[in-house]
Every structure is written in structure tokens, then in C-alpha cells.
Amino acid sequence: MINIRKLEAELWESADLLRQGSKLTSNQYCMPVLALLFLRYAYSRYKLVEAEILKDRPSRGGRVMPVEPSDFEAKSALYLPREAQFDFLVNLPDNITSAGLRNKDGQPVNSLGEAVNNAMQLVEEQSEQLTGVLPKTYTIFADDLLRELLRIFNNKTIDEIGGDIIGRIYEYFLSKFAKAVASDDGVFFTPKSLVKMLVNVLEPEQGVMFDPACGSGGMFVQTGDFVNAAGMNANTQMTFFGQEKVEYNAQLCLMNMAVHGLNGRIVSGDEANSFYHDAFNLAGKCDYVIANPPFNVDKVKSESAFNAGRLPFGLPGVNAKTKEVGNANYLWINYFYAYLNERGRAGFVMASSATDSSNKDRDIREQLVKTGHVDVMVSVGNNFFYTLSLPCSLWFFDKAKREENRDKVLFIDARKYYTVVDRTLNEWTEWQLLNLQAIVHLYRGETDKYQALLEKYNQTISEAVNSISEESLSFFPLLDSETAGQFNSSLTWLNSPWNNYDELSRNLNGQIEQTKSCVRLAEERLKKRELKPMRLAGDKFCKVLEEILTIIEEHEWLTGKFGKGEYNDIAGLCKIATLAEIEEKNYSLTPGAYVGVPEAEDDGVDFHERMNEIHAELAKLHEEANVLMKGILNDWEKLK
Question: Would I find S-adenosyl-L-methionine among this entry's keywords (predicted)?
Fold first, then answer.
């Protein structure tokens, strides 16, 4: 089985080593590298579609009719002229001039950089959506470096995996560049788990989706995945619109969408400044609004913003002297609401401070709450962004709430519910995202969706347990015969039915310990050259078991709170609050103000008894420290 994460990491490491060996900054390197990934994707798609076309291709005079651009257009695929095909570029000779190439304008091609520039121009001619988007700066690369990059992305494993693997690799590179391009503050990339949470709660099906601060297009890509996973076609069900002030980010967005096979209208530059322009005239017309706007923007011209409209709740605080909006968070909140049609939903990321900011912000929030359209509020902890450690909140509006929730808001405090990726980054795993979504489903009365999740847990865990024997085959043959016998005996529990997840967890934990014990035994009996592969296989097998345990833990987390599907307010996690309760708290929308704190678990330790023990322990340590100090002073006196 091919490890996709390993492939992503290997490709990134190889490509980034080349950057480090060059004189290019991450910012210079980012766009050209991502465009090469796009070209690799376009070529993979081209070959697949070409094979489909040639299956039933008529022939004349014994020759199969050549494929044409119109054939690809009929299959919603991009046609690539020969000079724009990835394998053509990879197989060019070291001495480019010897190939006698000419670009689209008839000029001689004298370097690999010029050949790639020409390929990008030829691709743009085939797609109106990509016109002027792809970089043509490849002459900044030395031919040797560019040739090595092409070789790296020509990895045959990509084609073996198939599916949307290029899209995943593109997103992975984008996230890595977000960390590397520190000067950009990661504004062009919203971490995937936050985007997925927004999409999971919005549950888009069909209609117009608008992102007025679309960055690199992650919201559209995840929406496409969500709609396609439901058995529909995102390009026929959804119409995507985006505004992105920074042209560089808009180019990333269009490439990102193209890599994922999505169409959309994206505008950039001054006319895409959402504070002053509704570029597509979408106010009141959107089925879904989704965004991660820049937080706490200041110096927005209040008169221009007011004249641009989309302010159903009025302007936030304005500096009387400068005539500027001091903090634009509530401009964005106004816009997100104003763009919705009569049944529209919105989901967006916002600075945590906005949930209970005061003065004019508070007045706007009161008006907003009284509409009854605030649906869900989620607090997110630190370290969810690649370059920022600040906490944030997710806001959701729904103009078509079910009647039972019309005057209610679901608050979720998820600040302590996450998975640590590394020292500076946290995320929600797929199962954690599904659990948080399940709380929303119960609040909306959609118990069938909750039941479907429980079935998914049971099926996934059962399938994973059934695959353990097969997974063990990568470890078993690397052991000596005696240890292999012991290891095989340790798996006998798999032949007996398990009655509940507690029992299964005990078996899995026991198997992990047994496996580690077998590794230690084998280390004493195997030859030195045999040790490393045996240890790696043992670690890999234990990881498989640990992943099953993690899924069980998430299942128990969910069912321990909501059983078979009945919503409950859970202290420290979630609460459904009425508008009256929100009014009592001065229209704060901070989840922590409503959910309270979880009840402390009784650990069985008597507090006073433990304090006495600690006190006695400290006194003893203090005495020992005095004895040691006297000894040191005596030794020092003798040395004088």
C-alpha cells in the first residue's frame, strides 16, 4: 500500500532542498513550483481523457483520427498541445538549442526556463479561467534546478495512486509554503481542519457560494469535495464566486481550483477590495457565504464603506478625527449577513475578541442576535494557524433555521478538544470534526445523521480489527522462529468475539505490549542487519493498533455525552442558549460564557491528606539540602 503522506513529505523535502541550494526566497519559489504541480496534474488528466477518447476513435486509411481540443472540451478536460505536456518538458535534451524549438510566437527557445514559460502560455490559451494566471518566470531558475524539479514531480507513484492525489499534494505544498513564507503571515492559506468545520456545518448542496476574501481557494476546494462525496457534481451543483484583493493569492486560488477540477469566477486587485466593492453584485443573492477574512483591519475609509452598502446593521465605530473605521471585524460580519438570500447560510472565521467587543460592535451584535439567524458559535483554541498562535471563533448564520431553533443559538467551546500535530500546530482530526458536526446535527434535530455516524464508527472499527491479521504479515516474517511463535500466539484473541469497546481496547493495548515485548526478544536473537527492518515493522504494526484505539476513544467521547442520539447541554463543551439568556449576558456570543466549565473528576485523592504528605516531603528535602550545604562549606574551608 502506497503511503500518500510519505509521498507528500518526500516531494516537499526534495523540492525544498533545491530551493535552499538556489538563491531564491520561498516567496519567489512558491508560485512557479505550484504551477509545475498544476501542469503535472493537467498532464495526468490529459492522458486519462485521451485514453477514453481513443477507445472509440474512428480511423481513416488505417490511421486513427488525431484527438482535438473539442474532444477534451466535451469531457470538461483541458487540452494540452504537445509542447505543454509534462513528459515533453521532462524529456528535453540538456542542450535545449539542439532541439530547435520555437515558442508560440515563433521565437527560438534557448533554455529550459523558456520552454516551460512557453508551456504555461500554451495552457492559458486553452482555458479562459487561467488566462494571465500561470507564472512565466522560469528563466530565474538555472536549467539544472528546473530539470530536477520536473524530475521530482514526474514521480510515477502519483499515477499509480490516481484519484485527486495532485490536489492533495498541491494543498500540502501550499500549507508548507504558508509556514515558510513568514512575511505573508499565512494569509493565503486557512488550515484544512478549520475549513472542513465550516463546510461540515454549512452542508452545501447546491446554489451560489461566495467568498469575499478567498485567498488560495481552500473554501471552494473543500466545498467541492463535500458535494462530490455526497454523490453530486460540484461544478453543476455549485456556482463559485470569489474576491481576493492580492493578485498573487487570486492566482493561487485559480490554480488550486483547476487542480481540483473546479470552475469559478475570481476577481482580484482594487475592484476586489470587499470593503468598497461588491464586484459581482451578489448582495442578497447567495445561498452560502464562507470566509476567513483578515482580522482587526483598521483605517478603512468609513464614507467609502458606507456608500458601498451591504451594512444592514450599520457602521461599526468610526474615528471622528480620521473618519476611519478603527476595527473592520463588524464590517465583515455585516457583509456576510447582507450577501445571504432568504434561505442562505454563512460560516466564517473571526477573531475571538469579536464575540464580546463593546460599544458600536455590541449594538450591531444585538441587532444581529435579534434577527434569530445566528445559528452556531464555536470557540477554537490556540495554534490552529500555521503562522499565528491566536485563538479564533467560527460563526454560523442560517436564515432558514427550523422553527424549534428560531430563538436559540448553539454554543460549542472546542478550545480543549483537538489533536497536537507538533509544538506550534494543533488540528481537528477527521473523527473529531465528525463529532463536532454531530453535536450540530443533534441541535438541528437530525438524529438520523447522528445514527449514521455511529454506524460509520462501528463499521470502520470492525473493518480495522479484521485487517489486523493481514497487517501483522509485514512484521511476522522478520522475527526469528521462536519469537514469531510467541507473536502468533499473542494474536489468538482475534479469533474470539469481543463484547464491547472496553474489552476491545484492553485487547489492543495488550497486543501493543506483546508486540513491543517480541521486538525486545528478537533484538537479542537477530543479526545486526536484520534489526532495523524488524523494528520499523514492529513500530508500524503498533501504530495500526494505536489508530484503532484512537477511533474507539473518539467514539466513546461522543457516545459518553450523547448516547444513542439525544442532545444534552454538556458543561464545558456545549449549550443551546435562548435569545433571552443571550440578552442577560449583554449579547455576548462567547461560547465560554454559556457552556461553563466541566465538572472536576474525583481522582480519589484526599486533598488535605495529600497536602500534608507534600509538606512533609518538602521539610525532608529542606533538611537534606541543609546537610549538603554544610558539607560543601566544610570542604571549601579545607581547600583554603
Answer: yes
